[in-house]
Design a protein that fits this description.
Blueprint lengths: L1 E6 L3 H13 L4 E7 L10 E3 L7 E3 L5 E3 L1 H6 L1 H9 L4 E2 L4 E2 L8 E4 L5 H11 L2 E4 L3 E7 L2 E6 L5 E3 L1 E4 L3 H5 L5 H4 L2 H9 L1 E2 L2 E7 L12 E3 L6 E6 H4 L10 E6 L1 H6 L5 H15 L8 E7 L4 E3 L7 E5 L3 E5 L8 H18 L1
Helix pairs in contact: 1-4, 1-11
Amino acid sequence: MARVLIVGAGLTGSLCAALLRKEATCPLHLVVWDKAGDSGGRMTTTSSPHNPQSTVDLGAQYITRTPHYVKKHQSFYDELLAHGILKPLTSSIEGMVMKEGDSNFVAPQGISSIIKHYLKESGADIYFRQCVTQINLRNDKWEVSKETGSPEQFDIVVLTMPVPQILQLQGDIADLISECQRQQLESVSYSSRYALGLFYEAGTKIDVPWAGQYISSNPCIRFISIDNKKRNIASSAVGPSLVIHTTVAFGVTYLEHSIEDVQELIFQQLENILPGLPKPVATKCQKWRHSQVTNAAAKYPGQMTLHLKPFLVCGGDGFTQSNFDGCITSALCVLEALNNHS
């Protein structure tokens, strides 16, 4: 039975796992590792420490489907809509740029429910807090080392983490990347920003006419959402939750500052936008060092194959674009590359 390791439990990684399971012609042992404490990657949903029902999407907020992908990725949207994992976005987002033919969707159980759905479908063994440090060739297999625990061997490895993290890997992998591939990988760039989640007590009223708002006039804050309102799941039993995304300029400026300092600066600016906000019962500040791809690896659309036998491939939005359809495209390209060479 072939042992397959997928590094990264974000959208591309979880989709690769689900598609591999679905299309496998022989038995596969699928394993997914992620360095975080939970799945989701940049599609992460976090809960209040006081009430697990109170959640906030810290990464992706909603999914925009453009006309180009309506037919192309129809089966993916249909499946998620049929399971109730996606629903049309019906609440008001002020300042949202709508292009003709676009449709927007939210995930009522939180954006990470999409990832959890794909991981469940894959039947993969999922391990968190697994930070890969090196990849070496050993007897026609990949020996993958991580920060803790013993190295493990796999027949196929799929890397879906942000490209800078691929470039940091030690071992034989560093020599297997060709000059042209390395150039392309080094050209991939990302924007950086912070996200701040605020959780409130049940019964708290946040009196604004919108569920989300893009802000163009603030040096720090770019987007605010009343998350349960955005997802249309407001309930009297659960307090509201708020998410604030900073501007990229702010994210870059304060990238190496402490989370406490950054949170304080965001709060100060928030007071200007929503004066008199009640005090939250809990907060969660997330640094997105690799938020959205600003420059993708143009010469390797969808995936980059680093080695054929044994198979080693990279995928993710660094090879497409940072959105739902970009990750689907990459997962399909990774699968195609695997099928062509196995």
